[in-house]
Each structure stands twice: as C-alpha cells, then as structure tokens.
Amino acid sequence: MNFKITHKRILSLLLIFLFLFSTASTSLAVSPYSNNNSINDIINRYSTNDVLYEVTNQHPLYSFANQAEYTLYELSPYGYAILLNETQSLMEACYAIGSTSPINISTDEVVYYGGPGIYCKYEDGQYYNYATNAYLSESESIAVANKEFNAKSIQLQAINILTTRAKPGLPTLPNYIEATVGRSYFANLSDYGHNANGTCTVIAAQMLLNYYDNYSNDAFISAQYEQGSGSSEAFHQLLNNYVYGTGEQGGIFIRNAKQGVTDYLIDQGLHYSLESIHTSQTSAINKIITTLRSGHPAIASMGTNCGADWDHSVLIYSVTYEESDPTSTAVFTMNMGWDTSDQQYREYVASASWFYECGYLVNNGYSHSMNSWTEYDNLFHARSCASCDYVEYARHSVNGNDVLNRCIVCGYSGITGITPQQICDTHIPE
C-alpha cells in the first residue's frame, strides 16, 4: 500500500470526528464497583475455564484519539485481557492454555487499539496493524476510530446505568447472568473449512450447521461431508457454491450470505432458514443474547464494515451480561473459525460492543401455539404445542452466579457437569 498521510493529519481528522460525536457520550465515569473489585476479579469473571488468573504485567494501549484509554494485562498462568480504563470494562481476552498477548508487552512503542485484531503502531506516516501485517488507509483509520469510539460509548452508557443502582456495600457487580450453548463442543471444534479467501461468514455458518447436525437433525450435513465432530473442506466449498454462485469468493455480510445458506437447507429437505439482524446494533446484540438463552448458538460479525481485512464473522456460544442492561454489558465467547491449532481462537472472548450483525437459524416448518418451557431432564427443557402433538427441546441455560444452578428458562435446578458430548441426537426430535 503506497498511500501515506501524516500523523498530524490523521489525528486532526479523528479529533474532528470525535468532536462531532461527543454529544453522544456523557462525562467519563469510574465504575461504582471499582473500589470493590481488583483487576483480577474482573478478568476472572469472564474466564472460560476454572483456572484462577492473576495479572503479571501490563502495557498501556492508546485509542485512535491518541489517549492512553486501555490497558493490556498479561496473565498467569497464560492468557491476556484488555480493559477500558475508565469503566474497567472487558473489551477482549483469551484464557485458553498457551494463549499469549497479541503484542510484545515489553515494547516501548505506543500501541493503538481499535478492537479485536487491531493493534497498531504508527510508522512511516501510517498505522501498521501487528495482527494483519498491513497498513491502514486514511478511510480505514477513520472507520476504526469510529468503531472504537462507539464501543467505548456503549461501555460508558453501561456504567452510567449501573451507577444509578450502586449502593454502599453492594456485592461485586451483582446480577450477572451467563447463558452458554455447547461450550465444550465449540471450544474443541476444529473440523471446518479453510478460510483462504475471506470466507469467514460461510465458515461461521458451517460451524452453526455442524452443531445442528450433531445435536438436532443428522440431515443438516450429508454423511459424505461429515468429518470428526464437524464437517470437511469439501462441505465448506459446497456452501461457498450456494453463497457465491459463480462469483468471486471473499468477505460477505451475513445478510448477503443468508439466501445461499437457506437454499442449501431447502435442498436438504429442511424447513429452516438463516436469518440476520443488522439495521440496529442494539437489536443484533439483543438477538444474540435471546438466541443463546433459548438454547441455540448464533453467528455474528464484528469490525468496522471496511471489508474482510478488518471485519470477521464468528460462532458465538456463550454470553455473560448484567441483567439491568444486557446489550451494553454483554461479553461473548466465540470460536473464530480460523484454520489453526491455537486453542485461544476457539475460546476467544470479546465485548458485544464490537459486533454489528448477527445470524441465526429459524425453523419455518411449523406454525404452532407453544406452551411454556418445562423441565424435561437434567439436560433439556421442552415445550409442546397446545393444538397438536409437536414438541421441541432446548438445552438448559444456567445463570453462573446461581448457587442452585437453576435454568433461567424453565427453572430446573441442580444442573451439574453438562457437556455437549452427553447429548444424543435422539434428545431433539424433529
């Protein structure tokens, strides 16, 4: 990339942008819980396993407004986390065995943070992203600044809401809820296609279909394409044919891929469609949360809307949020769908504020008048149609802070040790 601009020009443009949007943000507020929480407490709240993490080192990260507004924490025994300083909000983290910081934490360079996968230095008149080994153009720099400012504003909104609820002696960040679907399955899923041409949205859809094929209906993927716990590169290419047709493969919005995936499902004789929400970030995040709470995974896209180099679609299988403001406080756990042996990318954690679109499967085969969810067994709850014999099933969804391990959908208590491997196909009849 030969395009170059001066650091002063970029900062001037970014500061003008931030000024124009400053009315959308309130004065910076320190979390009302900051005196009751150590950084270790906050980081461990979103851990993807039972390991107790401790901060061993840290490095300031700068916003694209040239302010040291974030901190990257290196963790022991492994992993890292990035927090927004003003609110102590978790912006991203990796807790998996062997996971490491995305930058050299001992560097003396100023590092600019634009969200997951965007860690830049300023070099030769341009921003250089360590994660992609690529320079940002002027338009990309402003798009990244836009997204970073928006994500930060969402966190400030969350803290303002929590501040109104804060009382002396209030427990550490109360009323946090966790909804998880197939954590063990997705944290270990590596059987999917190779993303050589920016087809991450198709791979996210492939992972979604992998799950439904394993735990809902074996007709989602033909036996010839099944591989390990998922499906093969040949199935990835089959989905590409449906999504792109004879066109060039590359970055694509979920909204533009959904018809191709739906056409595939129809050809499989399934009454399902892939749907998306993208016109409202709040609506997209809420739909991911409600989809997970109903016992189903979702796919979602995060980034700047600048294309495949800066955006990425993933499979989301867990969320933690504060019940008074789910959208602003939600933190997702996801499988990134990358063709790598690195476990950290199958247990990646990021704030919902980075996401702008979601995708989910809808069963269009029936129109029923469904009763309320009731306990079925220690794995599932069920609900039946009031007018016929149709019954549907979904996994229990547990509030991680509930000592009784009650399902937040049906109220079943005593849920222990549930993993997707324990679930048989016959539990969910079609």
Topology readout:
Elements: H1 7-20, H2 39-45, E1 54-62, E2 68-76, E3 80-84, E4 89-94, E5 112-113, E6 119-123, E7 126-129, E8 134-136, H3 138-165, E9 176-180, H4 183-187, H5 200-215, E10 226-227, E11 230-231, H6 233-244, H7 254-267, E12 272-277, H8 281-293, E13 298-302, E14 312-322, H9 326-329, E15 331-335, E16 348-351, E17 355-363, E18 374-375, E19 380-384, E20 391-395
Antiparallel strand pairs: 1-2, 2-3, 3-4, 4-16, 5-6, 6-7, 7-8, 9-14, 10-11, 12-17, 13-14, 13-17, 14-15, 15-16, 18-19, 19-20
Helix pairs in contact: 1-3, 6-7
Can you walk through the features of this model?
This protein is α+β, with helices and mostly antiparallel strands and 430 residues long. It folds into two domains: 7-169, no CATH class; 178-363, Alpha-Beta Complex (Cathepsin B, Chain A), CATH 3.90.70.10. The chain is built from nine helices and 20 strands. The strands form four sheets. Strands 1, 2, 3, 4, 9, 12, 13, 14, 15, 16 and 17 form an eleven-stranded antiparallel beta sheet that branches. A four-stranded antiparallel beta sheet has the order 5-6-7-8. A hairpin with a 6-residue loop joins strand 19 (380-384) and strand 20 (391-395). Helix 1 crosses helix 3 and helix 6 packs across helix 7 (254-267). The longest helix has 28 residues, at 138-165. The termini are far apart. The model is unreliable at 1-36, 165-173 and 417-430 (pLDDT under 50).
